[in-house]
Write a structure and sequence with these properties.
Number of helices: 16
Order of helices and strands: EHEHEHEHHEHEHEHEHHEHHHHHH
Shape: globular
Helix content: 40-55%
Distance between the termini: 53 Å
Radius of gyration: 23 Å
Number of strands: 9
Strand content: 5-15%
Bound molecules: zinc ion
Largest sheet: 8 strands, parallel, barrel
Length: 411
């Protein structure tokens, strides 16, 4: 068994929210960080430290980390690999972990920078940004090679080596367009990891429908070369165009596919039984239903109808199920209110509001406190524009000052 491990970096709060037509409120991003932490995920790429409307949300979440609420998950911000972004990120936020991103393929250097940066400039600017991040005492520095899968290998190695020499901790191999297949990514990551001997992140996209397989093959290449692997995922595979690697599918593939986990070790902290909860929440927050046939969490993932299958599954579940629904936190019945229901929203009054919290068995010490929480709940609903979930309501009541900071925005 290899001594190196596979870790998960979830990028829902960065790549997921970049999805065209979709987004998350800052409260929803916060809940996702909390759920990822509960699930034992190593790191959350929690946002954009140079984007002004993220500032309060990011700082509030860093505060939650300091309070021990968002712990041990690592909260890391995404910026461009230019010194200006490092400067701004460290000025606006208290962020301690950063990933610095820049395009490395000839296609993008020519097609995006249009003569502004040559491939040599890309390395020069990136190393300057890494130097500055070091100087600012950033604890983990990841350097992202955007479009790595279409980058000439010799240049990619040169780029990664320069990042390492300047103190970067990891290289993110970005299959930005989902161009790799499991065989090509294995070959390329093997070459890269063997040459630079530093941990590799696999950031893959699903344009050709292979995202989970390429993520796994890339991780295998890193481990086979003697370095740790960090797979980038998003909840329900949300992300640009055809999306990123679905968190639950990646975990299932690592744990349940033929012979894989005997040789390749996944971060032991991961708790798969939170899968159902996190997938359902992300679906609600994004307003995107979970496909009926989604691995693990789809409505049909454990449904059997045809005669032979139903009979077989009833006799012994292993006949037609690779893993148990209980392992994913499924199987408990859920209560849906079918009669009168009082919800809390942006125009709620104190009576209805107290009824909502009574049902959650949360009591306020006096009217003043109740009024304060009500006002925050109204603001929360202004942001989310849909009924608040029980977990959101509980969070606001438990951490009102943090909630206030998250809701505060002044353009
Ligand atoms: Zn991406």
């Amino acid at each position: 068994m290899a001594k190196n491990k596979i870790y998960i970096i979830d990028v829902t709060n960065r790549d997921g929210v970049q999805t065209s037509r979709l987004g998350l409120a800052k409260l929803e991003k916060t809940m996702i960080n909390l759920f990822l932490n509960e699930m034992g995920i190593f790191q959350s790429e929690f946002g954009f430290p140079v984007t002004r409307h993220e500032t309060n949300y990011l700082n509030a979440n860093i505060k939650l980390a300091k309070m021990g609420v968002l712990k041990p998950i690592i909260l890391e911000g995404w910026i461009r690999a230019i010194p200006e972004d490092v400067e701004k990120a460290t000025k606006l936020t208290k962020v301690e972990h950063l990933n610095l991103s820049i395009s490395t393929s000839e296609q993008m250097i020519q097609g995006k920078f249009k003569g502004k940066f040559s491939s040599r400039d890309v390395i020069r600017v990136m190393t300057k940004a890494v130097d500055l991040a070091k100087k600012k005492r950033i604890k983990t520095i990841g350097v992202n090679a955007e479009d790595a899968s279409r980058t000439e290998m010799a240049y990619l190695i040169k780029f990664a080596r320069a990042a390492k020499e300047h103190g970067a901790d990891r290289i993110r191999y970005c299959d930005t367009l989902g161009f790799d297949n499991p065989f090509s990514i294995y070959e390329r990551v093997k070459k890269l990891a063997t040459a630079i001997k530093m941990p590799i992140e696999l950031h893959c996209h699903n344009d050709l429908g292979m995202v989970v397989a390429t993520s796994l093959a890339g991780a295998k290449a890193a481990i086979d070369s003697g370095v740790d692997a960090y797979i980038n995922t998003t909840i329900n595979g949300m992300g640009e165009r055809a999306g990123n690697a679905d968190l639950v599918s990646v975990l299932l593939a690592l744990e349940k596919s033929s012979g894989f986990k005997d040789k390749y070790v996944l971060d032991k902290r991961i708790n798969l039984s939170k899968a159902w909860k996190i997938a359902k929440y992300a679906s609600y927050a994004f307003g995107v239903p979970i496909p009926i046939n989604q691995p693990g969490v789809g409505a049909n993932a454990f449904a059997h109808e045809s005669g032979i299958h139903a009979d077989g599954a009833l006799k012994d579940r292993r006949n037609y199920e690779l893993y148990d629904f209980e392992e994913l936190g499924r199987g408990e019945s859920e209560i849906i209110e079918t009669g009168r229901e009082i919800t809390a929203g942006e125009y709620s009054g104190i009576k209805g509001f107290r009824n909502v919290y009574d049902k959650l068995e949360i009591a306020f010490k006096d009217k003043k406190e109740a009024t304060k929480i009500l006002e925050l709940v109204r603001y929360a609903n202004v942001h989310t524009q849909k009924p608040l979930t029980k977990d959101e309501l509980k969070f606001i009541a438990k951490y009102p000052e943090i909630a206030r900071q998250i809701f505060t925005m002044s353009p």
